[in-house]
Amino acid sequence: MNIVVVGTGYVGLVTGVALAHIGHRVTCVDVDEEKVKQMGRGISPIYEPGIETLMKENMEANRLFFTTDGARAYREADVIYIAVGTPENEDGSANLTYIYQAVKDIASSVTKDVIVVTKSTVPVGTNHEMQRMFQQLAPHVRIDVVSNPEFLREGSAIYDTFHGDRIVIGADDERAAAVVAHIHRPFGIPIFQTDIRSAEMIKYASNAFLATKISFINEIANICEKVGADIEQVAAGMGMDQRIGSSFLRAGIGYGGSCFPKDTKALAKIAANIDHDFELLKAVIEVNNKQQRKLIEKARERFGHIQGKKIAILGLSFKPNTDDMREAASLVIARELVAEQAIVVAYDPIAINKAKAVLPKEVIYASHVEEALKDADAAMILTEWDEFRQLDLSIYVKQMKTPIIFDGRNCYALEDVKKYAIEYYSIGRKPMN
Ligand SMILES: NC(=O)c1ccc[n+]([C@@H]2O[C@H](COP(=O)([O-])OP(=O)(O)OC[C@H]3O[C@@H](n4cnc5c(N)ncnc54)[C@H](O)[C@@H]3O)[C@@H](O)[C@H]2O)c1
Ligand SMILES: O=c1ccn([C@@H]2O[C@H](COP(=O)(O)OP(=O)(O)O[C@H]3O[C@H](CO)[C@@H](O)[C@H](O)[C@H]3O)[C@@H](O)[C@H]2O)c(=O)[nH]1
């Protein structure tokens, strides 16, 4: 079977590589010539653990190809996966420009029947609109649209693709659903087949639910700080109840990334469009916006004002093991610190290059942790990279002017911090000073 993947971002590239790895012949199409050139040399344009090894292996086995020539790829395809971006419009709704462009590109090229599988996250009704467009733009062939939302996490995308909890297939046509199920069967992951609209909704509802768990635990953390309870203990005790589950109960400075922020807003907008006021979800979003600024509040409380203070930021990406800066808490925090005329020195093991393009120009970059901490008045930990979790705490004492840590990801056990002359403020736990 000839499979084509449209868009080689986090989802498209991982999907293409994984489908090739289970034996399919896969051509990945992107409009970005530079990216395609890089991938043709076996270089991944994104940082994702394990991806380059799998890319090279499958390219060498002649199963994985990269091209900008979409027209040719679509002509020869049996199944086309769409994995282009669906970013946020100004009003919070999903921007479907790239989706509809891909539909037009495919419709103008295909000469035989084909199945189009939508991996991108799209609002309910979009796959049916795509189906309608195909019927109008390419009436000479049969094109079946299948919804197959993606659930991988950045930083563990390869693992998630091979070990996911479910593969959701939403289809109107049984034959098309069977073909997509057949393609995915080698993964050995349970397949949940449903109608298209439910499949589209499963994706938004799943992300909104996970975001709700995070905002919920963050609110509990905020209360813990005031009543003298410890959020780590509370989350551990809650998580032992299997009805609650222990995952996604890590309190911190909120969720970021390319999905939760935009997908929660898009779902609130989907609801608003049918005159449903999704109050709970709007509160989840509001709590997150406040939570991202928590360390600034703590610093203000501690210092009075932060003008002229040298602040070391440790961690810039929205989570560890990725260089993705989309909606990272560091964007909000660095901007606010710079606006208050603090001196900001930032370090991240992987994301500095991407960060330079989006953080204020006043931010100074360090090439290692010690350099960032040197003579700093305070450190703010924004991403829980292993490098920070495993850092010898004496380094803070040795390097900083005043060893004051604002830890937005609860990287250290309080008993460990207690052994050092460190002032330590974290999330949902008592301060150590
Ligand atoms: N990033 C994630 O972890 C993740 C996980 C699950 C679902 N999703 C969803 O998957 C979709 C893709 O997300 P992403 O983060 O991979 O996006 P991305 O922005 O990283 O990549 C999109 C790619 O599509 C390419 N593209 C755009 N229009 C094209 C066209 N007409 N033809 C060929 N290529 C085209 C772009 O050049 C880009 O390389 C989104 O809907 C997102 O919500 C993302
Ligand atoms: O207990 C937790 C878990 C996560 N986070 C934060 O939540 C954000 C998202 O983390 P994660 O879900 O691990 O990463 P993503 O790559 O954004 O993956 C989410 O978004 C993807 C895109 O839709 C989905 O495919 C995944 O299933 C979904 O987990 C990050 O900022 C994390 O720091 C917390 O604050 N506490």
UniProtKB/TrEMBL annotation:
Enzyme class (EC, first level): oxidoreductase
SUPFAM superfamilies documented for this protein: 6-phosphogluconate dehydrogenase C-terminal domain-like (SSF48179), NAD(P)-binding Rossmann-fold domains (SSF51735), UDP-glucose/GDP-mannose dehydrogenase C-terminal domain (SSF52413)
Gene Ontology MF term list: NAD binding; UDP-glucose 6-dehydrogenase activity
The reaction(s) this protein catalyses: UDP-alpha-D-glucose + 2 NAD(+) + H2O = UDP-alpha-D-glucuronate + 2 NADH + 3 H(+)
Coiled coil: none
Pfam hit, one: UDPG_MGDP_dh_C
Ranges where the UDP-glucose/GDP-mannose dehydrogenase C-terminal domain occurs: 312-414
Binding site for substrate: F151, L152, R153, E154, K203, F248, L249, R250, A251, G252, G256, K319
Family as reported in the entry's similarity comment: Belongs to the UDP-glucose/GDP-mannose dehydrogenase family.
Annotated NCBIfam families: NDP-sugDHase
Protein name per its UniProtKB record: UDP-glucose 6-dehydrogenase
